[in-house]
Design goal:
Helix content: over 70%
Order of helices and strands: HHHHHHHHHHH
Number of helices: 11
Radius of gyration: 27 Å
Shape: flat
Distance between the termini: 78 Å
Strand content: under 5%
C-alpha cells in the first residue's frame, strides 16, 4: 500500500468526524437559541395577567432563563478561533443582541405595572424573538460570513449612488425638502450645481460606480473560489472582509460633499481617499486565493478605471482653481 493511499485511509475517517461534529454543533446552536426564545416567552406570559406567579415560580423562571442564556453564550465561546474571525464576530454580535434583548425584557417587566401586558413588554418580547431568528440565520462558515459583509456593503454603496443620481435628475433645489417654509430661498450658488460642478460629479460618480463594481465582482469571486480549509485562506477572507468594510463610509463621505454648495477641496480630499482605498482593496484581492486568471481581468480593468476617474476629477478641480 502506497503512502498516499495510507494517508487517505487515515484522513477519510477524520474528515467524516469533522463533518459530524459540525452537524452536531449546528443542532446545538439551533436548540440553544430556541430555548432562549421559549424561556423569554414563558417569562413574558407569566407577568401578562393575574395572578402573579409565586416567588418559587419566579425563581424557577429565572433559573431556566439563565440556563438558556448561558447555553447560548457557550455556543460562541466554543466556536474555534480557527473557524475565522468574520464568523466569530457575527456569532458574537448576534449572541450579544439576544442577551441584550432578554435583559431589556426583564427591565420592562420590572418597571411595568404587574399583572398587565404593556406595549413595551410586547415590543421587548418581539425583539427577543427577532434576535433569536437572526441568530438562527447566521452563516455556517467564514466564507458565508464574508459574503454577508460584502452584501451589506453593496447595499450601502448602491443607496449612496442612487441618492446622487436622484439629486442630479431633479430640476428643483436638492435641499428644498429640508428648508423651513418661512425661510427665504437661498441664492443660486448655494442651492444648485453649476455646470462645472456637474462636470466634476461625473468622475466622482465613476469612482463610486467602480467601488460598487469591485464589491459585486469580489462577491462572485468569493462564491466561486473562497476556501475555508486552510488557515492562510481563512485569514485572506478575513482581510477582504475587513478592508471592504471601509468602502461604504468613504463612498458616503464623497457623496455628501457633492451636494451644493460644493467645496472643491473637500471633494478632492474624498476622491483621493476613495481612490487610494480602492487601489488597496484591489491589491489585496489580486494577492488572495479568490483571484484566479479570470478575476485578474476585472481587477486590472477596475485599477485603470480608478486611475482614470481620479485624474479626471483632479484635472477639473485644477481648472476651477
Amino acid at each position: 500500500m502506497s503512502a498516499d493511499t495510507c494517508g487517505e485511509n487515515v484522513s477519510l475517517p477524520l474528515r467524516n468526524l469533522l463533518n459530524s461534529i459540525r452537524c452536531v454543533t449546528d443542532r446545538v446552536r439551533d436548540q440553544a437559541v430556541k430555548a432562549v426564545s421559549h424561556e423569554a416567552t414563558k417569562l413574558s406570559l407569566a407577568f401578562s395577567k393575574p395572578p402573579l406567579p409565586s416567588p418559587q415560580d419566579v425563581e424557577k423562571f429565572s433559573e431556566s432563563t439563565m440556563k438558556s442564556v448561558l447555553s447560548l453564550s457557550t455556543v460562541y465561546y466554543w466556536l474555534p478561533k480557527d473557524q475565522g474571525v468574520s464568523l466569530r464576530r457575527q456569532v458574537r454580535d448576534a449572541t450579544v443582541e439576544v442577551l441584550e434583548g432578554v435583559a431589556q425584557l426583564v427591565e420592562v417587566i420590572l418597571s411595568s405595572p404587574l399583572q398587565s401586558l404593556s406595549q413595551d413588554q410586547l415590543t421587548s418580547t418581539g425583539s427577543v424573538w427577532s434576535a433569536c431568528d437572526h441568530f438562527a440565520q447566521l452563516p455556517q462558515d467564514n466564507k458565508a460570513a464574508v459574503l454577508m459583509v460584502l452584501s451589506d456593503q453593496i447595499g450601502v454603496v448602491k443607496d449612496a449612488i442612487e441618492e446622487v443620481e436622484q439629486a442630479l435628475s431633479e430640476a428643483e433645489d436638492p435641499f428644498s425638502d429640508i428648508l423651513d417654509n418661512d425661510q427665504e430661498p437661498r441664492g443660486n450658488q448655494d442651492t444648485y450645481w453649476s455646470e462645472q460642478d456637474r462636470l466634476l460629479i461625473g468622475p466622482c460618480r465613476g469612482l463610486m460606480m467602480a467601488a460598487a463594481a469591485c464589491l459585486r465582482k469580489l462577491t462572485s469571486a468569493v462564491k466561486a473560489n473562497g476556501d475555508v480549509t486552510t488557515a492562510q485562506n481563512l485569514a485572506q477572507l478575513d482581510d477582504l472582509a475587513d478592508i471592504t468594510k471601509e468602502i461604504s463610509p468613504v463612498v458616503d463621505d464623497l457623496a455628501l460633499c457633492l451636494y451644493p454648495p460644493m467645496d472643491y477641496s473637500g471633494v478632492e480630499n474624498n476622491v483621493s481617499k476613495l481612490a487610494a482605498l480602492l487601489k488597496k482593496v484591489l491589491q489585496i484581492i489580486r494577492s488572495s486565493h479568490v483571484c484566479g486568471e479570470s478575476q485578474l481581468t476585472w481587477v486590472q480593468f477596475l485599477e485603470g478605471a480608478v486611475d482614470h476617474n481620479l485624474q479626471k476629477a483632479k484635472d477639473l478641480i485644477q481648472q476651477d482653481s
